[in-house]
UniProtKB/TrEMBL annotation:
Keywords: Iron, Metal-binding, Oxidoreductase, Vitamin C
Cell division recorded as keyword: no
Protein name: Fe2OG dioxygenase domain-containing protein
Entry coiled-coil feature ranges: none
Fe2OG dioxygenase domain: residues covered: 222-322
GO molecular function: dioxygenase activity; L-ascorbic acid binding; metal ion binding; oxidoreductase activity, acting on paired donors, with incorporation or reduction of molecular oxygen
Family indicated by similarity: Belongs to the iron/ascorbate-dependent oxidoreductase family.
Organism: Deinandra increscens subsp. villosa
């Protein structure tokens, strides 16, 4: 079917979304069935700019002059001079890119590899009937969730991606609540990434000129949710997208990606590739870090392209208190404000923000605009 036919009156998108959802087998189920064409619900609009960006990154592409900063965390707790240098690098990266890559972050490569293999790949590739046990669209009352597209019925385009989601802090699930295929590694990876997150919040606090404990005292590391994404190989990657362009609805995200690649960041008015680096992790600022820093640190648009090579797997660790029942209010940090730099956002709860974000879906616009003063 031609792309222009997608928007004909006889195309019942909602019915096709329901039919897809009711299979409970996600995008992987479509691929396993042997499809050779991408179903209409996954098609990008014909005039969508992402169409020209959907091919895998080229080794000699146009964006070679733009390289995501890589920060070496080696020695930051032992060498005050090195720590000061790293704080400056963190400040520069979060003010401009909103992203940076980390090496020597303290999490063993063996743990990273096991998390990708056992924690994500093994879950998504287990027996279909076993995987269906975890399928739900209720991300409020369920702490362990498997589905395809959290915003399936809200977003304008369905993404070529399945996900496994779990709230790991402040109240982690009991081991028996987690799927057997990934139980042990999810608990171990959570300990490791929480330790790293606490370290990073200290660096970010100091990069803001604040006490090292400032963001921790605000509760930025109180909540942690893990997402294991699975991007099956796509027969027509030029027609769809792995994850639509968006910003994250948290304080910070720590991303573990495999060797395939596909992550792109919108920087200096163009999409820039983030080639995978073995053993590295990617950090990005979320909307709530941009809000509490009053736009000093930026939550940048990013996306994941679809690819004929696959599956691609990744793990996103979201530091967010949106998973906690709390009435705590967040607003721009008073110490960062002045007569020349007044607050740009109203005080809100993270729950209010997350509810708006989920209802809006990944539509390419920033949810922060809703809360501007």
């Amino acid at each position: 079917m031609a792309t222009s036919e997608l928007f004909q009156p006889d195309y019942d998108r909602k019915a096709e979304l329901r039919a897809f959802d009711e299979t409970k087998t996600g995008v992987k189920g479509l691929v396993d069935s042997g499809i050779t064409e991408v179903p209409r619900i996954f098609h990008l609009p014909p005039d969508h700019q992402n169409l020209i960006e959907s091919q895998p990154p080229s080794a000699d592409g146009d964006h070679d002059h733009l390289t995501l900063p890589t920060i070496d965390l080696q020695g930051i707790n032992d060498d005050p001079v090195r720590r000061k240098e790293v704080i400056g690098e963190v400040k520069d990266a979060l003010e401009s890119w909103g992203f940076f890559q980390m090496v020597n972050h303290g999490i063993p490569i063996s743990i990273l590899e096991e998390m990708l293999r056992k924690g994500v790949m093994d879950f998504h590739e287990q027996e279909t009937e076993e995987k269906k046990r975890w399928h739900t669209r209720d991300m409020i009352t369920n702490r362990v969730v498997y589905n395809s597209n959290f915003d399936l019925y809200a977003a304008p385009v369905t993404n070529w991606r399945d996900s496994f989601y779990c709230i790991m802090a402040p109240n982690p699930p009991e081991p028996l609540e987690l799927p057997p295929s990934c139980r042990d590694i999810w608990l171990e990876y959570t300990k490791q990434v929480m330790k790293l997150g606490i370290c990073l919040f200290g660096l970010i606090s100091e990069a803001l000129g604040l006490d090292p404990n400032h963001l921790m005292d605000m509760g930025c590391a109180d909540g942690l949710a893990l997402l294991g994404h699975y991007y099956p190989s796509c027969p027509q990657p030029e027609l769809t997208i792995g994850t639509s362009d968006h910003t994250d609805n948290d304080f910070i995200t720590i991303l573990l990606q495999d060797h395939i690649g596909g992550l792109k960041i919108f920087y200096q008015d163009q999409w820039t590739d983030v080639p995978p680096t073995p053993g590295a992790l990617v950090l990005n600022a979320g909307d709530f870090l941009q809000l509490i820093t009053n736009d000093k640190f930026v939550s940048s648009q990013h996306k994941v392209v679809a690819n004929k090579v696959g599956p691609r797997v990744s793990v996103a660790s979201f530091f967010t208190t949106g998973v906690i029942e709390t009435s705590k209010v967040y607003e721009p940090i008073a110490e960062l404000l002045s007569e020349d730099n007044p607050a740009k956002y109203r005080a809100i709860t993270l729950k209010e923000y997350v509810e708006y974000y989920r209802a809006k879906g990944l539509d390419g616009t920033s949810a922060l605009l809703q809360f501007k003063i």
